[in-house]
Design a protein that fits this description.
GO terms for molecular function: FMN binding; metal ion binding; phosphopantothenate--cysteine ligase activity; phosphopantothenoylcysteine decarboxylase activity. Its cofactor is FMN; Mg(2+). This protein is of the alpha/beta class and 228 residues long. The protein is 29% helix and 27% strand. Strands 5-4-1-6-9-10-11-12 form an eight-stranded mixed sheet, sandwiched between helices. It has a two-stranded antiparallel ribbon with strand order 2-3. Strands 7-8 form a two-stranded antiparallel sheet. Bound molecules: cytidine-5'-triphosphate and calcium ion. Cytidine-5'-triphosphate binds next to helix 4 and strand 9.
Length: 228
């Protein structure tokens, strides 16, 4: 009942969110991933639905329940995530890239399990860089025209403000969100640094749920102002 009377600042919007890690196969039984829990992205998807948006959540391998009202697309690798995002992006008006996408994948994943060869020498893995999903979407005509508002996250272990500002410019997105350390992977709370063309603003430490609500409100406010 309370939710029914709450303001719906994202009514009419279609929000696309990526969340969680990706998994890059080395062979059929092994792979490379990272410690992203997906909690922040799932909280954002939930907050966006509660704000009245239609929401598509492209999720890497995580064991989290799907927030009520969210359309979830499960993916494994960064390449799968890119394909799912490009498919959904054409209908979206907001893209929030909260996933911790693997930067590299094994170049030639083995079709069969790699066996020890008895020499004592480990296999040498070659890597290739994954396509930057956020930067790809941000370069699309709809993003460049302002029809699709793109929000990035920045995972940094040092110099958050400078690195986040540089990342915002490099990815060409209007809003970049930095996690204020220490490492927040898997935690239930976080603190965020919002970096846009005007400068930086801190969302102080709180639960990921309330930070997601605050972030959604910040995004909604930016949708209703004309770009400079
Ligand atoms: N991202 C993405 N696709 C990738 C890599 C990153 O969409 N292949 C997105 C993330 O979801 C995040 C933003 O880009 O929103 C920044 O990710 P981050 O790992 O902090 O930056 P990178 O550009 O990968 O640079 P680096 O890891 O070297 O700092
Ligand atoms: Ca990265």
């Amino acid at each position: 009942l309370i939710a029914f009377f709450a303001p719906k600042p994202l009514a009419g919007q279609h929000v696309l969110v990526t969340a969680g890690p990706t998994y890059e196969a080395i062979d059929p039984v092994r792979g490379i991933t990272n410690l992203s829990s997906g909690k922040m992205g799932f909280a954002i998807a939930r907050a966006a639905v509660e704000a009245g948006a239609q929401v598509t959540l492209v999720a890497g391998p995580v064991g989290l329940p799907t927030p009520r009202g969210v359309k979830r697309v499960d993916v494994k690798s960064a390449q799968n995530m890119l394909a799912a995002v490009m498919h959904a992006a054409s209908a979206a008006t907001v893209f929030i890239a909260a996933a911790a996408v693997a930067d590299w994948r094994p170049a030639n994943p083995a079709e069969q399990k790699i066996k020890k060869d008895g020499s004592g020498r480990p296999p040498e893995l070659q890597f290739v860089e994954n396509t930057d999903i956020l930067a790809t979407v941000a370069q699309s005509a709809r993003a460049q025209s302002g029809a699709l508002f793109c929000v990035g996250f920045a995972a940094e272990s040092q110099n958050l403000l400078a690195n986040a500002q540089a990342k915002r410019a490099r990815k060409d997105v209007p809003l970049l969100v930095g996690n204020i350390g220490p490492a927040t992977f898997g935690q239930d709370d976080n603190a965020l640094l919002l970096v846009d063309a005007q400068g930086a603003q801190e969302l102080p430490r709180a639960s990921k749920r309330s930070l997601a609500q605050a972030l959604v409100a910040q995004i909604a406010a930016r949708l209703h102002v004309e770009p400079p």
